[in-house]
Amino acid sequence: MPSTKRKIINDPVYGFITINHPLIFQVVGHPFYQRLRRIHQMALAQLVYPGAVHTRLHHSLGAYHLMCQAVLELKNKGIEITPEEDVAVKAAILLHDVGHGPFSHALEHVLLPGVHHEQMSLRIMEAMNEDLNNQLDLAIQIFTGNYHKPFLHQLISGQLDVDRMDYLTRDSFFTGVSEGVIGYDRILKMLAVQDDELMVEEKGIYSVEKFLIARRQMYWQVYLHKTVLAGEKMLVKIIERVRYLYSRGEAASLIIKSPVDHFLNHFTGEMTECSLEEFCRLDDEDVLFGIKYWSRHSDKVLSTLCTALLNRNLLKCKVQEEPVDENFIAGIRKDIASRLNISEEDATFLAFTGEAVNTTYKLGDERIKILFKDGSVKDISQVNSPLIHQTLSTPVKKFYFCALA
Amino acid sequence: MPSTKRKIINDPVYGFITINHPLIFQVVGHPFYQRLRRIHQMALAQLVYPGAVHTRLHHSLGAYHLMCQAVLELKNKGIEITPEEDVAVKAAILLHDVGHGPFSHALEHVLLPGVHHEQMSLRIMEAMNEDLNNQLDLAIQIFTGNYHKPFLHQLISGQLDVDRMDYLTRDSFFTGVSEGVIGYDRILKMLAVQDDELMVEEKGIYSVEKFLIARRQMYWQVYLHKTVLAGEKMLVKIIERVRYLYSRGEAASLIIKSPVDHFLNHFTGEMTECSLEEFCRLDDEDVLFGIKYWSRHSDKVLSTLCTALLNRNLLKCKVQEEPVDENFIAGIRKDIASRLNISEEDATFLAFTGEAVNTTYKLGDERIKILFKDGSVKDISQVNSPLIHQTLSTPVKKFYFCALA
Amino acid sequence: MPSTKRKIINDPVYGFITINHPLIFQVVGHPFYQRLRRIHQMALAQLVYPGAVHTRLHHSLGAYHLMCQAVLELKNKGIEITPEEDVAVKAAILLHDVGHGPFSHALEHVLLPGVHHEQMSLRIMEAMNEDLNNQLDLAIQIFTGNYHKPFLHQLISGQLDVDRMDYLTRDSFFTGVSEGVIGYDRILKMLAVQDDELMVEEKGIYSVEKFLIARRQMYWQVYLHKTVLAGEKMLVKIIERVRYLYSRGEAASLIIKSPVDHFLNHFTGEMTECSLEEFCRLDDEDVLFGIKYWSRHSDKVLSTLCTALLNRNLLKCKVQEEPVDENFIAGIRKDIASRLNISEEDATFLAFTGEAVNTTYKLGDERIKILFKDGSVKDISQVNSPLIHQTLSTPVKKFYFCALA
Amino acid sequence: MPSTKRKIINDPVYGFITINHPLIFQVVGHPFYQRLRRIHQMALAQLVYPGAVHTRLHHSLGAYHLMCQAVLELKNKGIEITPEEDVAVKAAILLHDVGHGPFSHALEHVLLPGVHHEQMSLRIMEAMNEDLNNQLDLAIQIFTGNYHKPFLHQLISGQLDVDRMDYLTRDSFFTGVSEGVIGYDRILKMLAVQDDELMVEEKGIYSVEKFLIARRQMYWQVYLHKTVLAGEKMLVKIIERVRYLYSRGEAASLIIKSPVDHFLNHFTGEMTECSLEEFCRLDDEDVLFGIKYWSRHSDKVLSTLCTALLNRNLLKCKVQEEPVDENFIAGIRKDIASRLNISEEDATFLAFTGEAVNTTYKLGDERIKILFKDGSVKDISQVNSPLIHQTLSTPVKKFYFCALA
């Protein structure tokens, strides 16, 4: 007789998201989870797509909703998922991104050199697990891939997991870019499990095709849009410049009385208890506040970058398939140095090049398995679809060049 | 021969928004306008509706888009609108909200006592006008209602203006509350002008009916949702508590090196040049950063409020039709004071009551005019629609009571 | 271990509709059900709303989908619904409209004088029950309101049943009239059962309000749109004229070798086995084909009506709140008679008046029950919402007048 | 001073469609155009996608709407389009499909052997032109490609015309197949004209990519879905069987007193005045009525096919990449002949094979031209996009096999 508390949350993307298990209430209500409310899902994509201001919290809730549907579908198909596994896999997906820092991918490895957000998610899940009397034990086992039913882990993290399904759907919704629309509901209906592995029924092949192409289109049209890139690289340069100035002994003028001070000045790459605690208080606001503060700093490079980013007066950016010529950059830098009356070394913060690689997508060696009507299973790369082959083999690297206009 | 620069912006609500006039580019590119990117349209509504994180900048762009359509429709109907008026009314709508401060209505009259956001919009438009060589003269005339074609002003600010049409549509879209959906495109098609006054064709009466009801439903279901109210009133109490502590000489522990310091400590209600300059650097981030900072303050009341708001651990809130009994509140306060070991005066920050009034809507005496097929014009209150009468006469005041659980 | 056949059907309104029970497959595959594919849901509304060509079959599937969700919600809330009841209530909703004849409400009581479509639904369900070895026994019990759990019947036919929820949603979708959008998903989440009666939780009150208003707006803006009315009344007049000509002995020129011949010539109001069999072969096509055929008939009145309807050259129609003056109509008829060189009696087919009443909605005395948090139950008319009172007491009758231009 | 009549039509796909020119009113009001109301856009796709019952009239209106937007965009970009050209190109797109017969592509070349629907469109436009005092002269010139501004013709019929943009968008909308969603609004914004040729700006390349992929996905997932194919091929076999029976002298039992009789019995391939007149009275209803009538015919093959189609009891269908083995088919036919006690020749109507080719799309040698920022123009096949190359070179032929189960 279910008399548990039950809550429904309006979601413009899926309609309503239902929460009806005590553990899920505890996870969602925990300060570590609520912190995701202050981290934008798409970093600075809003500089181009003004609607793209949704949060990591919203994305996590969405992925949780898709997980609820996926679990229900699989159960309806006769796959055994115990009540404990059911809630654990839902808790795990809610927390899969809890280790993201300010501006997510845009500053990953920059604010916390050498630390991957999935490691942090695990650290924070463990800390939350202590608060919740080990109720997250199973969720952690599934999250880390150490549970004896791999398909539960694959629903969280695989080529066709609910994480990807939600962010493509959600990012496409909030940017208004129709090219990213996927048939997530159809894919969910087509999920199957055989030998404890997650797969897709043969009939779902067009939807998978669509999914892969949408991912690729969002990749180049949105995530690596040259103007978004310009903004996010300026963010990186700001952090780097602040670090540089710290190293020159200018701490007093830089400190903003925020946890970000710790990561700009002291952090060595080792995630101590203290660093973890600071991290859990850190979010987009700290960096944004810093940028506003530093926009009035006496260092011309720093104030230029901060002011320009605040006013959306971005560096010019060009994306191309070939590496950028070093002589060309050197010339630009010389010019900037002379115009701004700064050193050429300083000018490297205002004119720079790099590789535009997709850090959003894990294009690893995980593969999508297709379950055929006759019971056989094939990897998607063996399926007769030229579009899929093409998409899977599409190169994922371009080169960018940004410079002060 | 239009060879001007032209830009299209993706909007999940309307599809594409087009910018194609040099003055519009200048307005949108101005730092005062870009500042709206850092002010949430719906203050803390996201505590209940996680998708409602869209910005004032996005709303302004949307209202601008509807204005483009309205102007086109009216021209197609033979109404004379000169090219100068065309761009001026578009610039004016872009800037109609430029005077909003942090968290818009939620902190209006709190951060800047005695200052209305429309006054500020005018001040900032005037400042921007200086930067733009008086190109905004006509826009300002229209905005202030001093132009000889009143319908242009009414498109910006009236009972059925593009501001309202956009925010209902946009807020409904981002919250996912279908009750707020209006037929904005139909209303736009039904706009008419007679004797330089804006009106709606008779055939549009059902859409107007729908608009008024949607407004009323959004009012109670979203804007004055008791949990949203709780969060926003906590915000107010935080500001009041900081002011109180300032007045007790605790400035050193409160200053966060942000323009908000000025308004918390020094601001007298007079909008000097200096205050205006500080205001133009002020946005949601300053207040949010403050809350994070003050959550570790030694004042128990302040830290309690800040921590609770950050972690979405909100005061309990009740909305009712009758005023709240003073004795009841006094009892609650006594209890809180004893539990937290604070004075009863301090407890007034943690248990309080007030009127839930709609500050979002201007329910003034402006009226919607209906143009009948026979050429006659009636005020909507004279139209034979019981639903409209009912909606127009619905009371707009309730009473709320918030207290620490 | 569910290894049953399972089918998903694309629905533009809800995404996917799932069929996964053998009995449901049998019902959907039965010729009596497939016949609904050839009956338009909205009769001639497509003359004004070109998208409104969806079928009764599509509506039935949609109502079935909502029923699946409603049943799931109620079960999740601890209401006992046995597997037999589960499938029975779904079969019943699939078949609730199976007794509709050509053009549904537009010709109800015209083609089959004295026969209500719900009676026919029951007759056809009984016939189908024979084919299906009495598997529909329980469905019929629920449909007729003879089952000891009234809430199951109320889900099919009540003030807030899934039938109404689907047709408002679907008709609004296919017409593109946003005024008819309701929050069906929210209403479904708010359904509750107490003492075996269906009710709505207090929190759902705004959605119910919205539902009632949407219904009223669709009523006047779409279902009784004057042009739709004109078309549908022409349809009625065509049938009446054919009957009149039959009575004058002109059968040979009227017969189209279709089951409709039976109902135009022989049907007495008694639904014999033979009439039932003819009815089950009858659909919109028969009437449409007749219209095309009779458009070349030698009777001027008949050919005029048929040709005009085919070419959407409709009678002029006026809807008003007062009855139409008889002298006025007489004058018009005289004029038409003289212009067309026909008798004044004949002219009554080309100029006529009547009451526009809502036959689509059952505005009976069934009531919506609201379940309050404290466990008390109130009828909606006792709830403190002026809008609801207004809507419930809105008159449902107007007068129309149609005449050849 | 535009004081012309003006009408807006609700369209669930685009919102509102505006008609505001006397000639457009005349075209839309003409019986030849209204006939499209009785021809389904997607033939029998509704057997799989129940929502896909929209009409050719609706599609024409939609294409007209996109044309209005395209023309406006081009004018805003400085392309000269005179008022006469403006209305002519809109009239032409409204009429581009006016020559479609019952069930469009499914019966093209079957009911009228040797006649292409575009020829018929031209014939009917010419007939309508007579009724309209040659007001369609320019529209016909543009439609036939004989006007000196080719881009106007290309908007109607080219690789990226508004016809295709509408049907992909509309068919995807009504089927609910998200894979067919295209960014039509973005493509329209990216249209350009150079040297009187229609092209797409470089920035629109992703949208074109998406468009081509969507087309391919709709092709295989919807238009050539094996169940849709089964239904449509049964339709063909019904027509062929009726013809065969006519040739055997069984006219009396086949005639349904409809224009379709003419095309089943007498039509020789030559489109005489008489045939044209009959054609203009012919639509889906005639064929559907025939099927209902013939479902009770004494010929077992004919009645079997008709009854099966009516009850959606379709032939089993298999689509494959290789031609179907003739011996295999022969075996199946033998089996059917023996089961039904018919000749093996008769069984060819109940078990047959053929090529599934895309007759919907004109995959001719027309090409999409891309306009680069530097002013150069390239054919899309020269653009660096592996996905586009892949899509353009995808084979368009498969083989199907249908047989009575």
What does this structure look like?
The structure is a homotetramer of 405-residue chains. Chain A is an alpha+beta fold. Chain A folds into two domains: 7-224 and 367-394, Hypothetical protein af1432 (Orthogonal Bundle); 226-357, Growth Hormone, Chain: A, CATH 1.20.1250.30. Chain A has 20 helices and nine strands. Chain A is globular and about 70 Å long. The relative contact order of chain A is 0.11. Chains in contact: A-B, A-C, A-D, B-C, B-D, C-D.
What name does CATH use for the topology of the largest domain in chain A? Hypothetical protein af1432
* Name of the CATH first level of the largest domain in chain A: Mainly Alpha
- In the CATH hierarchy, what is the architecture of the largest domain in chain A at level 2? Orthogonal Bundle
Write down the overall mean pLDDT of chain A. 92
- The strand order across the widest sheet of chain A is 3-4-7-8
Describe the secondary structure blueprint for this structure.
Four copies of one chain form a homotetramer.
Chain A: E1 7-11, E2 15-19, H1 22-29, H2 31-34, H3 56-76, H4 83-95, H5 104-107, H6 117-131, H7 137-143, H8 150-156, H9 162-175, H10 184-190, E3 191-194, E4 197-201, H11 205-223, H12 226-247, H13 251-254, H14 259-265, H15 273-279, H16 284-294, H17 300-310, E5 316-320, H18 326-340, H19 344-347, E6 351-357, E7 369-371, E8 377-379, H20 386-393, E9 397-403
Parallel strand pairs in A: 4-7
Antiparallel strand pairs in A: 1-2, 3-4, 5-9, 6-9, 7-8
Helix pairs in contact in A: 1-4, 3-4, 3-9, 4-7, 4-8, 9-11, 11-20, 12-17
